[in-house]
Design a protein that fits this description.
This protein is α/β, with parallel strands linked by helices. The protein is built from four helices and five strands, in the order E-H-E-H-E-H-E-E-H. Strands 2-1-3-4-5 form a five-stranded parallel β-sheet, with helices on both faces.
Length: about 130
Amino acid sequence: MAKSVFISFDYDNDAHYKNLLLAWDKNNDFAFSIYDGSLKDAINSTNAAYIKSQIKPKILAASCLLCIVGDKTSKSPWIDWEIQTAKDASKKLIAVKTAKDNTSPTGLLGSNAKWALSFNFDAIKKAVDEA
């Protein structure tokens, strides 16, 4: 049975990587879950409480959280919140950098996250399988 994976990503900069994951999802090796509205509003917007109320159940229902680490990911308070929410719920963490020099979000550091060594199907599938 495929694992349910919540995808955490920078909406403005890394949506194409999320779309690639969803395309790979068609082969039934993954069961990705995502709330696309999560990163359209600033974390301190008037919609933040509502957005969090929509995202949190998806994170809690997933077996793990996969963080796409793009070049601006470490600056996103949304991604920090999603990682912390997953950690608080004892979810497995998986991460993959879109470029090797991207800075990791602090929530992933020291978290025993399983890292995919490159952004390709085989590496990500292996990390998900091992998480």
